[in-house]
Write a structure and sequence with these properties.
six-stranded parallel β-sheet, about 450 residues, single chain, alpha/beta
């Protein structure tokens, strides 16, 4: 079937969370289904789509810089277009809409988080009619999983179970750009997972702004534990999920880490702060003691569980004591990984109007200290796996050394090992090999493949 996109090339640049990455796979699936060809570089692309995040100010700056720079990138030789078509979607597209084309006059298409399916039509109009094509909807008419997808890896799949968020943390823009929480019917989730398993997918990651509250809108109460049971029954080898809000993490879900065959011993559980005062100002709706109680229960259910988290430094009003409370919590938990951020004011959120008298240099000093501590704790956490044998889902060759395979352990650690004799990284990609860990660094493990490949 010949379409206006036949033999046209496209490139997608994705910022932000796993949900944005999944949305990018949906866009790629739509465009490839219409005959367009994916390319790696912007220079080779007739159409460039940016899937954006607006959680932090740096993402805005990065987007504006990259879009502005395209004015000076010539169109590829042999392109069927007279000009490169540039599109912006995702959270910044949803938030800014028409404002984007007012500030970036060479931008052709803007779409939001609720209308991924509109992109081919908007691109076609931009090609045929020129001008600015802007469409941002207040809510989605269908779940984005109804769209085709072009997965980055054949052995792994994102599987959204909810979209939107009802939490309204005082610093967060997500509920305003992703909308209210909406769950997929359980039978639809299971059917999609069964298709992935039949296609040879080894690992499924369940997605949602808050997976723990899955089903509250459909069934009157959260049913995330039932989702985990149902996905385990499909035969999937590895099951993960993101992201979890501590206030909704139930004992029933925690117990699944000790009973379900496929559920990997790794959990991302954002704490944001170790201070009750700051947590209340953030509207997180749990306390330090409650969070530490969850950690204790998780380690009782699965002693070897690897925990990761998010921490914001410099939230308005954060005192030296508040920061010390955060440091003590990180010491007590012993995370494998901590994603640290300096607070970024987001207009339209309650925190944007809060007074903040802390000098930037003080916040930066706290942040630098926290990063140093996090790195030391991550190194210590990885030492526990030195000398062990871990199952590694191979992702391909190491980016630094083509003679090393690279993959993920059950605890989501990066693992490197020399390729077995006569085997290539391409051949092993998507398979699970056993690696004896000889060395444990801050951000990766390394060793040798044992028992063959």
């Amino acid at each position: 079937m010949h379409t206006p996109f036949t033999n046209m090339t496209f490139c997608i640049r994705t910022f932000g969370c796993q949900m944005n990455k999944h949305d990018s796979e949906r866009i790629a699936g739509m465009l490839e289904g219409l005959g367009a060809l994916p390319v790696e570089t912007i220079e080779d692309a007739d159409v460039v789509a940016f899937m954006t995040c607006c959680v932090r100010e740096a993402a805005d700056t990065r987007l504006y810089g990259q879009v502005a720079s395209l004015k000076n990138v010539p169109l590829r030789a042999g392109s069927p277009l007279s000009k490169r078509i540039v599109a912006v979607g995702g959270c910044i597209g949803q938030r800014d809409g028409e404002k984007l084309v007012e500030e970036l006059r060479h931008l052709d298409v803007v779409f939001g988080t609720h209308n991924l399916a509109s992109l081919p039509r908007l691109l076609e109009a931009a090609i045929a009619e020129g001008g600015h094509q802007v469409e941002v909807l207040d809510a989605a008419s269908s779940f984005p999983t109804e769209l085709p997808t072009a997965r980055e890896h054949h052995w792994a799949a994102w599987l959204p179970i909810t979209i939107g968020c009802n939490n309204f943390c005082s610093y967060c823009i997500v509920p305003y750009v992703r909308g209210r929480e909406k769950s997929r019917p359980l039978e639809d989730i299971v059917a999609e997972a069964e298709r992935y398993v039949a296609a040879g997918v080894k690992e499924i990651t369940l997605l949602g702004q808050n997976v723990n509250s899955y089903g509250r809108d459909l069934y009157g109460a959260p049913r995330f534990a039932a989702v985990l049971d149902a996905l385990d029954a499909t035969g999937i080898e590895r099951l993960r999920f993101a992201t979890s809000h501590p206030k909704d993490l139930t004992d029933e879900v925690i117990g699944k880490f000790g009973t379900l065959r496929s559920l990997m011993p790794a959990l991302h559980l954002p704490v944001q702060s170790g201070s009750d005062t700051v947590l209340a100002a953030m509207n997180r709706r749990y306390t330090r003691a409650h969070y530490l109680g969850l950690v204790r229960k998780l380690r009782e259910a699965c002693p070897d569980v690897a925990l990761s988290t998010d921490v914001i430094v410099g939230f308005p009003g954060e005192t030296a004591k508040d920061f010390e409370d955060t440091c003590r919590l990180i010491d007590e938990v012993g995370y494998h990984q901590v994603f640290t951020f300096i607070y970024s004011k987001r207009e339209g959120t309650p925190a944007a109007s809060m007074e903040d008298q802390t000098p930037h240099e003080v916040v930066q000093s706290r942040f630098d200290r926290l990063v140093d501590m996090v790195q030391k704790r991550a190194f210590e956490a990885n030492q526990r796996d030195k000398g062990s044998i871990v199952d590694v889902l191979v992702e391909g060759a190491s980016k630094r050394d083509a003679l090393l395979l690279s993959g993920k352990s059950p605890k989501n650690q990066t693992v490197h090992a020399p390729l077995p004799a006569g085997r290539s990284a391409e051949e092993l990609a998507g398979s699970i090999v056993r690696v004896r860990v000889d060395e444990a660094k801050t951000w990766y493990l390394s060793g040798e493949v044992v028992d063959g490949a």
